[in-house]
Amino acid sequence: MKATFLGTGTSVGVPRIGCTCPVCTSADPRNKRLRCSLLLEHRGRNILIDTSPDLRTQALRIRLHRVDAVLITHAHADHLHGLDDVRCFCSQAAGPLPCYADADTLQRIRTVFDYAFRQDNPSSVPQLELRPIDGPFTAAGMRVVPVPLRHGRVPVFGFRIGGLAYLTDCSDIDPMARTLLQGLDVLILDALRDEPHPTHLSLEQAVAVARQLGPARTFFTHLAHDLEHRQTNARLPAHMALAYDGLSLVLER
C-alpha cells in the first residue's frame, strides 16, 4: 500500500492569507501546506480521505486520474468542501462513487451539495453513493476500521487501514480508540502547533500519544504556520517527523 499526503495544513493552509511570518514566507516547499487530505493506493485502486477545498490543485499536482472511494473524517469545511471536484472521477466510474462518513456528515453533504441528489441530476455533478459508517467496512478492496475520536466537542472519525492509521483533527484519543491502534507501522496524527488548543492536539501532546501507542513511525499533520519544518523536525524524537505535502510512504500492509 502507498500513502501520499495531498495536504498537511490547517484550515487556512500555509502560507496563511496576509501573513508575513518566517514560515509563511519560507522558500522551503515543505512549509507550503494545502488543506489536509490523504491518498491511499493498493492494487490499482485508490481511496481518498477527505476532500479539501484544495482538491483540484492536489489532484493535478500528483496527476491523480482515479478515485474508487472517498472517506470523510468529519463535516468541517476544510475537510469536505472540495467534494464537488470528485465529479471528474465519477465520470470514469462504472457507477456512483461510494462516499463513507457518519450520519451527521452525510446529512451535511446532502445539504451543502443538494444539487447532486436531485432527480434530474445531470452528469456534470458528482455522482455519489452515500454510505453510513457503523463499523468496519471494505472500500476499494481495502479493509477500513473507523476510529472514533473527539475534535473538541465534535465526534469525528479517524481510520485504520492495515498497518496505517490516519487521525486528523482530534483533541483526545480515548481508551477504546487506543485499542484499535495497536501494532501500527505508521501513525499519522494531528499536531496543530506548540501552544495548546481546545480542539486539536498540540505537538507536545501528539508526541506523548505517539509514544504511548508505539508505532514504528509517526508523521504529524494538520500543521499551522507556527511549526517550521526543518527546525521542528530537529527537536522531535527518533521515528517521528512532520509530514509535508507530496510525501509518499510505502507500507507492506
Can you characterise this structure?
With 253 residues, the protein is an alpha/beta fold. It has a single domain, classed as 4-Layer Sandwich (Metallo-beta-lactamase, Chain A), CATH 3.60.15. It contains 7 helices and 14 strands. It has helices spanning 55-62, 77-80, 87-90, 103-112, 175-179, 203-213, 229-234, and strands at residues 2-7, 37-42, 45-49, 69-71, 97-101, 128-132, 137-139, 142-151, 154-161, 164-167, 186-190, 217-221, 240-242, 248-250. The strands form 2 sheets. A 7-stranded mixed beta sheet has the order 6-5-4-3-2-1-14. A 7-stranded mixed beta sheet has the order 7-8-9-10-11-12-13. Strand 3 (45-49), helix 1 (55-62) and strand 4 (69-71) form a beta-alpha-beta unit. The protein is globular, with a radius of gyration of 17 Å. The N and C termini lie close together (6 Å). 44% of the residues are buried.
Quick summary of this structure?
This protein is of the alpha/beta class. The protein has 7 helices and 14 strands.
Helical coverage, percent range: 10-25%
The total count of strands amounts to 14
Write the element-wise H/E pattern from the N-terminal end onward. Answer: EEEHEHHEHEEEEEHEHEHEE
By secondary-structure content and strand pairing, the structural class works out as alpha/beta
- Spatial strand order of the main sheet: 6-5-4-3-2-1-14
Characterize the quaternary organization of these chains.
single chain
**Can you identify the CATH class?**
Alpha Beta
Estimate the mean pLDDT confidence. Answer: 96
CATH superfamily: Ribonuclease Z/Hydroxyacylglutathione hydrolase-like
Strand content: 25-35%
Compute the gyration radius: what is it?
A: 17 Å
What is the general shape? globular
* Distance between the ends: 6 Å
